[in-house]
Amino acid sequence: MTWKQDDKKIRKLHGMELWNSTLGSDFILVGILDDSGSPELLCATFTALYMLAMTSNGLLLLVITVDARLHVPMYLLLWQLSLMDLLLTSVITPKAVIDFLLKDNTISFVGCALQMFLELTLGGAEDLLLAFMAYDRYVAICHPLNYMIFMRPRICWLGVAISWILASLSAVGYTIYTMQYPFCKSRKIRHLFCEIPPLLKLACADTSTYELMVYVMGVTFLLLPLAAILSSYILILFTVLHMPSHEGRKKALFTCSSHLAVVGMWYGGASFMYVLPSSFHTPKQDNIFSVFYTIITPALNPLIYSLRNKEVTGAFRRVLGRCLLPTHTTS
Asked: What residues contact residue 308 under an 8 Å CB cut-off, 6+ apart?
């Protein structure tokens, strides 16, 4: 018996015979809907959250685009955040719901790679954008007289462009490197969507060096922006506490608290997946936390930012009034 036959026999005994992980191969997504005790209720919840995300983010995009009074850096950044959230949840939620309803959880090799690339691009861009939004609030509250110098349109759009470009380049590298691994006979990805940590568990090759690189980049993309955000808000807090106007303090604290609520939901789930070592969490926990930053956060972000924001609600009334005015005029 040759060494090749010996190797093949050992792999069969251990259930590790390689399956053909080529462009024509399929994976099977075994996500939280499959492991849940009441999958129908969870599916209905995901659908409702997706519809909420589409409606609220879509309305926010429309209002900021149409109302010229909101064409300032803070709301231009919020426009970008809504776009990222709308696209991110659209990459994940519809497929998960449709797969559950059709009882078909397969995803092609190319489809898996594309989903991973889009999720990493949008997630990475949002990481960086949230840090830039914190800088915007720091300048607005701590240096209001110089706001239009430090946050002039060129700087604003440069920050947005850097967020998209760095996230896209990082996602391309991650996707290509992850998908080049040989995968074992088991095609089941125990996750709601194609993401690096659960996919690496199917690899037959040694992934320890790459996992370390993913961890280092996770710290870079998550903890460094988070540190910048927390530093900005600590400086903001000191400034707010010394404000003579009670109304000014109240408005500044409310704006910052809404931003921090978004930051907490987003970075909490993402850090659990990419910063906490894999030995400290199970696939079921990964599924739960990934739902926070891909389904729940995109649905709640526009509500957190706009429900008690007088400028946004006022702009919404103006846009709504503009839409209804022709109807009243005709009647």
From this structure: 254, 258
The set of residues, in sequence order, having a beta carbon less than 8 Å from that of 45 and lying 6+ positions away, is none
Please give the structure tokens belonging to residue 299. 């649905």
- The Cα 87–Cα 61 span in angstroms is 12
Q: Which three-class secondary structure state does DSSP give residue 193? A: coil
Let me know: does 184 contact 203? Beta carbons within 8 Å. Answer: yes
Cα 89 from Cα 294, distance rounded (Å) = 6
Beta-ladder partners of 107:
27
Find the Cα–Cα–Cα–Cα dihedral 58, 60, 63, 64, rounded to 10°: -120
CA distance 316 to 331: 23
Task: For residue 46, give the nearest of 300, 304, 302, 291 by alpha carbon.
Answer: 291
> In this structure, what DSSP letter does residue 189 have?
E
122: amino acid identity, one letter: L
DSSP for 39-103 reads HHHHHHHHHHHHHHHHHHHHHHHHHHHH-GGG-SHHHHHHHHHHHHHHHHHHHHHHHHHHHHHHT
Quick one: pLDDT band at residue 4, thresholds 50, 70, 90?
Answer: very low
Digit-coded pLDDT (tens) for 203-246:
888 888 898 888 888 888 888 888 999 999 889 888 888 777 77
Please classify residue 236 by burial: count the beta carbons closer than 10 Å to its beta carbon, then call 0-12 exposed, 13-18 middle and 19+ buried.
buried
pTM comes to 0.85
Tell me if 243 sits within 8 A of 252, measured CB to CB.
Answer: yes
Q: Is residue 224 classed as helix, strand or coil in its secondary structure?
A: helix
Q: At what angle do helices 109-142 and 246-274 cross, to 10 degrees?
A: 150
DSSP label at residue 63: H
Residue 18 DSSP symbol: P
Question: Are 93 and 46 within 8 A, CB to CB?
Answer: yes
What backbone phi and psi angles, to 5 degrees, belong to 252? -65, -45
44 touches 87 (CB < 8 A): no
